[in-house]
Amino acid sequence: MEVVLQNLTKKFPSRDRKKKEDVIAVNDFTFEIPDGKLIGLLGPSGCGKSTTLNLISGLLKPTSGKIFFGKEDVTDLPPENRGIGLVFQNYALYPHLTVKQNILFPLQNLKGKDKLSKAQMNEKAYEAAKLVQIEELMERKPGELSGGQQQRVAIARALVKMPRVLLLDEPLSNLDARLRLQTREEIRRIQRETKITTIFVTHDQEEAMSISDMIVVMKDGVVQQIGKPQEVYDSPANLFVAKFLGTPPINIFVGQVKDNKLYIGEDAVLDVKGVANQEVYVGIRPEGFVLQEAGAFHCELNVVEVMGRDISVVSTNKASLNPTVRAIIGTENKVDMKNPTVRFGLVPRKVFLFHKETEERIDFED
Amino acid sequence: MDYSKIEKNAKIRKTIFQAITYILLTFWAVIVLFPFYWMILTSIKSYSAYNSEFIPKFFTLEPTLQNYADAFTAVSLGKYLANTAIFTIATTAIMLVVITLAAFAFARLDFKGRNLLFVLFLSLMMIPNELVIITNYVTITNLDMRNTFQGLILPSVTSVFYIYLLKENFEQVPDSMYYAAKVDGTSDLKYLLKVLIPLSKPTLITITILKVIECWNSYVWPRLITDDENYYLVSNGIQEIRENGFGRENIPAMMAAVVVISLPLIILFLVFRKQVMEGVSRGGTKG
Predict the structure, then answer these.
(1) What confidence score (pLDDT) does residue B285 get?
(2) Which among B177, B185, B186 has CB closest to A92?
(3) What dihedral do alpha carbons B54, B60, B64, B70 form, nearest 10°?
């Protein structure tokens, strides 16, 4: 089922009585989510991603704009008639019911022609439980389960009605790091097996990048960029997206383009053809640095952190907007700790230029 | 001083402290339980034996159940008990429905003036009961409901305090559970019945017990609103028995009646004492 959002806007009345202006949680969101894909809604807290999810689920009514599931306009449908499954951040399992009763709960509300016999309900519940691999926990209460198991029960409950769209609100944020890795693979597997269009909300870019077919990066209610995770990472639309994606985060500098050359401080670090002379923000991914004795870019060396898989070189530069510059280089490199200055060459496709005012990315040829 | 000596001293101190505690508690228990003992003792003394004792004796060698028989035959104790049972069950049942719905509305539903209304409700708690009784009396009399069960029951089918208690309880259930239920197509009523009420069971049990005790013990209101013996509850019934029940001052038979009407509450308390104590400590004063 493809999900189409058309100029979706949600305004909340301002809490502050003095200010009459509404708070715009989601601003003019237009997007077509293809059938059977896993979409990650990504952004810092308060960016409107959860609001978007609630609009799709029907728990909130949009101020303007429309939502379609396939050809059907569901904008005015109440949540129960939309055919959605929703998994909450805190799982929202009913603590007084067993796992089985929890999974059966949505089925017991079906009315009219959809009504199922007891045997059918049980069968469906077991199917859903099998999908998330919790068959042996059916008689337990949620309180007796671990966080990861509760998460699976919540997913099973959302899936038992075979929803057209599955919505997950911060599905992994209540799990510890190890379980998070495991569960996100699990979500990916379940989504692949059921082929249900799935939208999930997260503030963790790594989580979104790792399992999504497409990610939507939002900020202050406005969509910044939509695309495949790697594409968004490799060509961020603006400074915000560049800063938001990637761990360790991208290094930002103030730079200047003069005669097709990019200057950071006094160093002419890169050839940038086709860019007019102007001040720019320069973003360099940590992996965009190459240790070179005659490298054009120099920084004051602080410390070298050995991570095992690679080395991170922490240094400072006057033009940097971050307190430190972090470069990640291979372990085959040796950093001379005695030398207070470290010199880098840059990988052109890991370097981005952003307009000083609009913060939009500026294309260049190297 | 070596270690074993210190330990020994501590042990002795502890034993003495414990002994004192137990002695005090025993003393207190005797004070509390003595009236009950006296009540039961008197109820099994025969009328003549009781009256022949110039100085009351602390035991009896000739227990009799005649007084109990008298209490049920000579006066309409059975009728009073039945009335009280009807009154208690009806009041408690109706109140549970009323407060559950009200608490749900205040906790979950979004309507204009909700908070204002709730504050007004709470402010009602500041009005002393005695004042309310007067207006209630006027209202019930004007409605021509004196000497009816409706008149007895109506004024106590709601309780602001219990609404407040239950509302707090309902609000502790996370919002997401409500939304999850909504997405699954659960109606508000079903959500209330299937999720909120089971989750608030301990509070509801406490409220039920406290209300039953309150109903069983209520005196002033039934006394005011009924003067027809057919609608007497045990509380004002016993008053009636004392004044002109047995045709003479029959203390042993009266004590038998008192034992009978105390028994249900004593049993209730013994069975549910944990919940009662919880409710009293949570509720502060009521109960």
Answers:
(1) 43
(2) B177
(3) 40
